[in-house]
Design goal:
heterotrimer, A mainly alpha, B mainly alpha, C alpha+beta, A: MetI-like fold, 14 helices, extended, B: MetI-like fold, 13 helices, about 70% helix, binds adenosine-5'-triphosphate, binds magnesium ion
């Protein structure tokens, strides 16, 4: 940040400094609350807070692993997430391919309908899914044990309604860069429609399929508004979390946030490293085409990239250090804090008593 | 062309297997996930509130009572359902304010990102914008609870600094809620504006500057018109998401005030009144759509440009 | 194997727009045939009708005598080389080349072998494992040809395959293409808007304008005996005089122009009669300085400027009563060196070297 400020100051005008300051403040606002929450995860205080600081501890992380409801919710979240990926990615793909083919006049209508789930409030989607499958179930005379009333099934369907639209957008933007002549070339060389799709279009869409799948899983994993209606008697990580947060706050929630943030950062790092690799490979290809290079350098497996190894090492070391620092001397520290609190309380009692005595004594003085 | 010819052409272009997949998947999505559920919910909202075993029987007759209830409440004619109406208008109004706040906040950031920042720095900033939003919505709200709570960070800090003598109740005053909502969907405001601005030719701005246009004028006459679809798109998304938010109000809302989605939630999960819940959901949906369409009309932006 | 291609009364419409108008043409088996025409005249559209990507609105496409109606592009004995090549970017060179075999279920080992043979043919031995992105423009070009040939088509269709290459490479590829065609012996249908390409490579050429075929013939015929004003102005350089037919006899017409009465050979099928609007065309190399005033047609002019082209001079002249400067080319000798800008001269040309066509649309530029 200071580097940024200095760079801006070198180019002088006050407006630039103002802008840099604004950007800095903005990012502080973006990360501040999350960082503070992360800090509370390591404070042994039973209420999530930064100050007063009691003891550095990892007990809230341990509490996470032992939390049955949370683990149950996590399992359901993963199952639902995978279900949504399996449903929403093909659906979004079909929706995008269809968009390329519907007639000029029907296109705006079609687009409005398939894009609408993104704009419909999540609670409305949840409610409509719930009501619809309930009525359909009733029509078939299905019992309450059937999938029409199953929380996991309903949640997958409800979430996939709008997540399919997200996936569709991913595919549309990739398809816009597809050269339709490639499809025609395949047909011209004798491929059937299905072969052309499988051997030409699908490989081209592979990165989009991967990002759509990741997007779908993340969107599903963190969804609350729709899920809270469709999940029925089951639970997901978010519904369990919401329950915890609403009825009694404790720092294990912060600990969970730290875990999620760490996983996220690690994931982002992997993506970035993979992107750099692709860039390098593309640059190499161009060099070969221009005759500046004879052949490609051999590819290492992604996980052996030095940058990635380093990041993973840092993460593991950080977690290990925290673990170590959080367990040694924790009991002594806690005892000390308790002792201090007790002394504090005693102190307060004593002042109180003294004041009482003083007050009682005062009228006599008058 | 007749529909049959369309279908034959479609089949010729895609072959049997692919045709089946395309029509099957989009058909299921549009019919069973988008259109029919909304219609069923609408139908449900116009029916009497009877216990589930009687659904579909004559006792499950059509009625406007839930919509009437929203306006007049349970009392006699002439009295109004002050509670629900107030919550409704407060939700819409607050969502609008939050949207405006986000737009004002994000416009300069998007501008900086699109035009001033370069190369690695810009990529890092984009990444920094995205990462906080990979953290769960509930956890984000929770972070604000920690920040604004009675013994939270902000109160501790303000008291330590001597600004406050006793904790200020940010939660009761809904400050925590509005801050949390303003935070929750920022990303969906920045990126559409950023995308629109990025495609703006830098030379255009330079040319305007050369002609001596002031900073404000350049934005008014060159940048804003260009970024308009992005701004409208961002505002639409943020408004819809804010008005339809449930987690943040549940976690950050003051005890005395509700968000409209919470009323719907209560109708479903506490009162077990699905019919009224559906009716209220329809009211939320329709009023949001009407508002957004009005906004798009006012700014002359088409739906096709939204959600890109 | 090679096949004849015939288009019978082919019309292609996009809504109200007519992209091909009553096309009738027969392309002999084993021929190198070109469609030549300016951008947007419907060449690609016609080729797509042959390869099966679109059905003619009316008329028939026959390949080897068989009607192709209702037969998809993957079932026709044609292979198309696309305007932008359309190589599969995610496949290696050898996978690209043998794609047609792959979809027929040929095993990898046999495909590999065939790829090596074809790489030999296109002079890229041992490059099969590269990716498409690792090839230069000319190499890509040749891979696209190999890929099409691997499908063993009876007819190869090429849509301006050289347009993306630089001049040198383009000229080398012309010879190579012609060579390959002789070796494989199948029908090539070649599309281009570059007359140089068409004239050097083709056995026969169809000149197209706005969806209509103006004339079919070999390069010599098109150059020496254009049938229409468009062909005369599109193929090679030509000097134009506008006028009205004064007298028409068998084998010669007289056209009254602003530069005087000019005699010329009437174009085939023009059926010029007295009073018709007509154009007279004379090639720059057929135009002479006529100091002795003995040629059939004579025009007074001023030399405007001249350009040295190495083996010959290009002289630009302002002719009496002509709208555009005339062009004259002459070999580089002492006589040419004596011609200076500003000189008053008399030009002449023989009637049998000039062509009179019916007045009509000209090629742009
Ligand atoms: N699918 C289509 N719908 C409507 N019009 C079309 C379509 N395809 C081609 N056209 C029109 O038909 C005309 C001929 O197009 P075509 O692509 O055949 O030209 P071309 O001779 O190949 O030109 P170029 O040399 O630029 O490739 C053009 O005016 C084009 O706009
Ligand atoms: Mg073309």
């Amino acid at each position: 940040m200071t580097a940024l400020l200095q760079a801006a100051a070198a180019r002088a005008p006050a407006a630039r400094i103002g802008m840099a300051l604004f950007v800095a403040l903005f990012f502080a606002w973006l990360f501040g609350p999350l960082v503070l929450m992360g800090i509370t995860a390591f404070n042994s205080s039973a209420f999530p807070r930064v100050s007063p600081w009691e003891c550095f501890s990892v007990e809230w992380f341990e509490a996470l692993a032992g939390d049955k409801a949370l683990m149950e919710g996590l399992r359901n979240s993963v199952v639902i997430g995978l279900g949504v990926v399996a449903l929403a990615v093909p659906t979004g793909l079909a929706g995008a391919l269809m968009l390329m083919q519907v007639g000029e006049r029907a296109r705006p209508w079609y687009y409005s309908v398939v894009i609408s789930p993104i704009l419909i409030p999540g609670v409305v989607l949840g409610i409509s899914t719930l009501v619809f499958w309930d009525r359909i179930g009733a029509m078939f005379g299905a019992g309450h044990k059937t999938f029409f009333y199953d929380g996991v099934f309903l949640t997958v369907i409800g979430q996939a309604t709008f997540i399919s639209a997200y996936c569709m957008l991913v595919f549309i933007s990739r398809l816009q860069r597809f050269n339709p002549a490639l499809h025609e070339a395949a047909l011209d060389l004798g491929a059937t429609q299905l072969q052309a799709f499988r051997k030409v279009l699908l490989p081209f869409l592979k990165p989009a399929i991967a990002s759509a799948a990741v997007l779908a899983f993340l969107a599903s994993f963190e969804n609350y508004n729709t899920t809270v209606f469709t999940i029925a008697s089951e639970s997901t990580l978010t519904t369990v979390l919401a329950g915890k947060v609403r009825y009694g706050i404790n720092p294990s929630v912060s600990a969970l946030a730290v875990v999620i943030a760490a996983v996220t950062l690690l994931f982002a790092a992997v993506l970035e490293v993979a992107r750099r690799r692709r860039q390098r490979a593309a640059a190499e290809s161009e060099k070969i085409a221009r005759g500046l290079l004879r052949s490609r350098t051999r590819k290492k497996p992604l996980l052996l990239e030095p940058a990635l190894l380093m990041i993973v090492t840092v993460f593991v070391a950080g977690a290990g250090t925290a673990w170590f620092a959080g367990s040694i001397g924790l009991e002594e520290c806690k005892a000390a804090v308790l002792e201090e609190k007790r002394r504090d309380a005693e102190e307060r009692v004593r002042t109180f008593q003294q004041r009482q005595m003083f007050r009682r004594a005062a009228p006599q003085a008058n | 062309m007749t529909p049959l010819r369309h279908l034959r052409e479609f089949h010729r272009r895609n072959g049997a297997g692919l045709s089946l997949f395309l029509i099957g998947a989009t058909g299921f999505w549009i019919l069973f996930m988008i259109v029919l559920p909304q219609l069923f919910m609408a139908d449900f909202s116009f029916r009497a509130n009877v216990p589930p075993p009687k659904w579909g029987t004559p006792e499950h007759y059509y009625t406007l009572e839930h919509y009437r209830y929203m306006i007049y409440g349970g009392g006699g004619e002439g009295s109004f359902n002050v509670i629900d109406l107030r919550v409704f208008f407060k939700t819409i109004g607050a969502a609008m304010l939050v949207t405006l706040f986000d737009a004002a906040l994000c416009y300069p950031i998007a501008w900086h990102l699109a035009q001033a920042a370069r190369g690695g720095w810009a990529r890092l900033m984009v990444l920094a914008l995205v990462v906080p939003f990979w953290v769960n919505e509930i956890l984000r709200a929770f972070a604000f609870h920690i920040l604004f709570g009675a013994s939270g960070v902000l109160n501790s800090a303000l008291m330590a600094a001597g600004v406050l003598d006793e904790p200020y109740d940010f939660v009761r005053e809904n400050i925590a809620l509005y801050a949390g909502l303003g935070y929750a969907f920022i990303l969906l405001m920045i990126f559409p504006i950023y995308n629109a601005m990025e495609s703006l030719d830098k030379n255009q701005v330079e040319a305007a500057r050369d002609l001596g246009a002031s900073r404000w004028r350049i934005h008014r006459r060159v940048v804003m018109p260009h970024a308009k679809p992005g701004i409208t798109s961002g505002c639409t998304m943020v408004f819809m998401l804010t008005a339809g938010a449930l987690a943040a109000p549940q976690i950050l809302g003051g005890p005395g005030s509700l968000w409209f989605t919470q009323i719907i939630y209560q109708a479903f999960n506490q009162a077990g009144n699905w019919a009224r819940g559906s009716a209220y959901a329809i009211i939320l949906l329709v009023s949001c759509i009407v508002l957004v369409l009005a906004l798009m009309k006012a700014f002359k932006v088409r739906l096709g440009e939204i959600a890109r | 194997m090679t096949s004849e291609v015939a288009l019978e009364n082919v019309w292609i419409r996009f809504g109200d727009f007519v992209a091909a108008r009553d096309i009738n043409i027969t392309i002999r088996a084993g021929e190198f045939f070109s469609f030549l025409g300016p951008s947007g005249c419907g060449k690609t559209t016609l080729l797509r009708a042959v390869s099966g990507f679109l059905e003619p609105s009316e008329g028939r496409v026959l390949i080897g005598g068989a009607d192709m109606a209702g037969i998809g592009p993957n079932k026709r004995p044609t292979a198309l080389i696309f305007q932008n090549l359309a190589l599969f970017p995610l496949m290696s060179v050898w996978e690209n080349i043998t794609f047609a075999l792959e979809v027929r279920g040929v095993g990898a080992a046999r495909r590999r072998k065939r790829a090596d043979e074809l790489l030999e043919l296109i002079a890229l031995p041992g490059q099969g494992d590269k990716t498409v992105g690792e090839l230069s423009g000319g190499q890509r070009q040749r891979v696209a040809i190999a890929r099409a040939l691997a499908a063993e088509p009876e007819v190869l269709l090429l849509d301006e395959p050289l347009s993306a290459l630089d001049l040198k490479l383009r000229q080398r590829m012309r010879t190579e293409l012609r060579d390959i065609q002789r070796r494989v012996g199948i029908t090539f249908i070649y599309i281009t808007h570059d007359q140089g390409e068409a004239l050097t490579m083709s056995d026969n050429i169809a000149v197209m304008r706005e969806g209509v075929i103006e004339q079919v013939g070999d390069g010599n015929t098109l150059y020496d005996r254009p049938n229409t004003a468009f062909v005369a102005s599109f193929v090679g350089e030509n000097n134009l005089f506008r006028g009205t037919v004064g007298a028409a006899e068998r084998g010669a017409v007289t056209v009254e122009t602003a530069a005087g009465a000019l005699r010329a050979r009437p174009a085939t099928g023009a059926a010029l009669a007295a009073g018709d609007d007509a154009f007279v065309f004379i090639r720059p190399e057929s135009l002479r300085f006529d100091d002795a005033m003995e040629m059939e047609n004579r025009i007074g002019a001023h030399i405007q400027r001249r350009e040295f082209e190495g083996s010959f001079w290009q002289v630009f002249l302002d002719a009496d009563g002509a709208e555009q400067p005339l062009k004259l080319s002459m070999v580089n000798d002492d006589a040419a060196a004596a011609r200076r800008p500003g000189q008053r001269v008399t030009l002449g040309f023989a009637a049998e070297l000039a062509v009179a066509t019916r007045a009509g649309p000209l090629a742009a530029g």
